[in-house]
Every structure is written in C-alpha cells, then in structure tokens.
Amino acid sequence: MTTKININGTLEENPQISVFDHGFLFGDSVYEVVSTRDNKPIYLDRHLTRLNNSARGLSLEIPYDNERFSLEIDRTLQAAGNEESYIRIVVTRGVGDIDIDPSSCQTPNVIIYVTETHPYPRESYENGINVALVSIKRNPKEALNPGIKTGNYLNNVLAKMEANKLGAQDALMLSPSGYLTECTTSNIFFVQGERILTPAIDCGILPGITREVVLQLARENGFPVEEGSWPVETLDKLDEVFLTGTLKKIMPVTRLDGKQIGNGKPGPITQRLMRLYDATLQSLG
Ligand code: PDD
To answer: 3-class secondary structure for 73-99?
Structure first.
C-alpha cells in the first residue's frame, strides 16, 4: 500500500500538522472523499463544488481553485502509483490561538491524502449489511447543518459506536423532529413495491453525490422516486433498503432495526440500480 500526503502543495515524506491548527483543536475544517476509476478521480468537479459550498458554510476561504486542486491531486496520485486510490481532501482553518474564535487563524491548510483503496467485502454486496436505528439523533440543520461536510463528525462517530454495540455495520439516524435522515457516511433509500423513497435534503442530510446520480438513474429508468420527510413508521413496510456513498457505491441493507428486509437478500430494484450505477462509472472518462 502506498500512501502519499500533499500538504499545501508539497509531497511530504514526514507529514505534520500543527497541534494549534483549529482543524485539530475544534474540528474546524471541511473535507471530501473521492474515489477513482483507472486511478483517476471520479466526479471530482462535483466534489469540489460541495467542498466549496461547505467552506462557504463556515466562511472558510479555500486558497486553491479547482485547477490547482486537480493538479495537486494528479501529482499525488502519480506519486502514490496505486491501482485505485482513496483520495481525501481536507481544508482546515489553519494555525491560531487556542481559542474558539477563528479570527486568529491566518492561512488554511490544504491536505490531500492518497492511499490505496479498500473495497467493501464482496459478501456485503451479495448478502447486504445490517443497519441499526440508533438513539443518537442527526445534528439539526439549525445547529450544525449536515449539508456542510465538516471535519466535525462526532455526531456520526457516536452513532457508529452505538451501531457497533448493537452488532450492526452502520447506524441510521433520525432528525430531532423524528424523520429518517441518513447513515454515518452514506445516504439511505427505501423501496416500497415499485416506489423508491429517500429523505429530502431538507431533512438535514448531506447532499450525497452518489445519491444524486442514483436519483437520476432511477428516474431515467422509469422508477417513481420520492424525496420527502419519512417518519420512523416508514420502516414497518419496506421491501428493500440500500445505502449510497462514494466508497460504498450502492450497498444493499438486508437487516434494519433488528428486522429482516424482504427475503434477507438484496432485492431486484437494488440489484438493478447497482448494475446501472456500475455501468455509469464504467462509462466515465
Ligand atoms: N461520506 N452522508 C454522510 C454523512 C457522508 O459522510 C457521506 C459521504 C454521504 C454520501 O455522500 P457521497 O455519495 O457524496 O459520498 C452521505 C464519505 C464517503 C466519507 O466521509 O467517508
């Protein structure tokens, strides 16, 4: 496995970030995770748009334009020379006083991690995973909007720990007002008969890039898709469930909140969308 770290445009042999960086002290940072095909970034433009939106949400000025990001990512990918890579872009508030006020921070740090990708086990795609409905609520939009992808993932960390305790691979969180939102690093879709349901962005979720592509694929292929506010009772009558995310792609869920979904195997609509999504990735660039 080759890992290369690019900090502010330098490929570091011994990467270091100051303990006074507010990203470290307060989670005051934004980030993106990008995957590759033929070791080239997939949907980089969309990830950079979301990174810039996240930064705007924190009034954080990113010192790179998209061209610079693209260049630095390519250099780092080439230096690592993996077959396929996991790319993580992090922009921190930078070094400042040990004080929550970001105004002492002068220069954001831009870090690009590239490492070999670790695909999820084939078994998970063939049999589906187990997701717990946890007691931890997703951050309310009015507090720390989940639409902003910040380095403060403690909400999700706590949810994941609860899922671990329940023997599940991921956690589904409700919003404080009781609507279904998303999992710790993925969006969620529910299938009832022919209908495909997913929480609307307004419920307080990350606008996932995979979610967006899957919504488009479903619509183009004639599936009725509804984005909305779904109460917890929605879980009582489900035929299929799947998660979407950059690393997971489309991951079938065959156990949710302690109950089996469908016949305990990935359902036909999920499988169809998995094939369509794979074909879409194959067709890129
Ligand atoms: N996570 N919701 C949350 C909370 C996420 O962290 C992610 C992505 C998603 C899916 O978004 P996308 O399809 O754009 O990857 C939804 C990345 C993979 C991560 O933090 O590792």
So the answer is: HHHHHHHHCCCCEEEEEEEECCECCCC
d(CA 73, CA 75): 5
Give the Cα separation of 130 and 145 in Å (integer): 27
Cβ of 187 below 6 Å from ligand 1: yes
Ligand 1 near 191 CB (within 6 A): no
Would you tell me the crossing angle of helices 268-283 and 209-220 to the nearest 10 degrees? Answer: 110
Task: Ligand 1, residue 209: give the atom nearest the CA.
Answer: 14
Ligand 1 in contact with 204 (CB < 6 A)? no
**pLDDT tens digits for range 14-38:** 999 999 999 999 999 999 999 999 9
**Domains along the chain with CATH numbers:** 4-116 (3.30.470.10), 122-284 (3.20.10.10)
pLDDT digits (tens, 9 = 90+) for 90-105: 999 999 999 999 999 9
Model-level pTM?
Answer: 0.97
* CA pair distance 37, 68, nearest whole angstrom: 20
Structure tokens belonging to residue 39? 């070791």
